[in-house]
Amino acid sequence: MSNCPTGKIRRKSYNRRSTSGSTVHVPANCIVDTSGRGHKRSDDDKKIIKARERIQNRVNRKYGVPKCPNGQVARSGYIKKSYSRKNSRGSYTKIDSIEVKPACVSDQGASGKHNKLPIVLEKGDLKKYGYENVSDKSSSSRHRALSRAVKDIKPLSLFRKLIILSTMNKTKNPILAKKFKSDAKWIKSEFGLLRTLSRSKSRNSKSRRSRK
Rounded to an integer, what distance in angstroms lies between the CA atom of residue 129 and that of residue 146? Predict the structure, then answer.
């Protein structure tokens, strides 16, 4: 049970390697709640990832995983959720969920590697703030959208999401990757990473007044 003050969460103890190679025990401690969830986001992500892996393993066993040629890697099978599709008459048709078989896909990462990021990205969660079609937007338009997003999302969480998006696009779309990375750096310089939103607003307002 956590006895941490408001705004902080308990981090479990762990062991790490020092520069000399010896093992150092880091005791449990209260750390800043950067996600605003009252617990570590990584704990939620691990549960979601494990649930997805169970589904993928079941589909993989059912259909088998193909052996892929050079330049390709095996993509695990998965279940595509049901959704509603709008037709030309304006009505909606429900599409049932289906199992997608394992397949060979182009290797977008380092040669021969297909590492998974241990984090869950919520698709389209920045769209409502206007942060979409990033390739076609100017830096000022992207920054305005991110300024709206930071009202609801802590700067550190937003920074991490942009860095991950940059990493994911590094090889398949280097120009887009650079834009994500540039926006992440802008978030860091404009709002900081561990400051609260109120303090960030105060800092920015003072900065604007000093420039007048």
Answer: 7
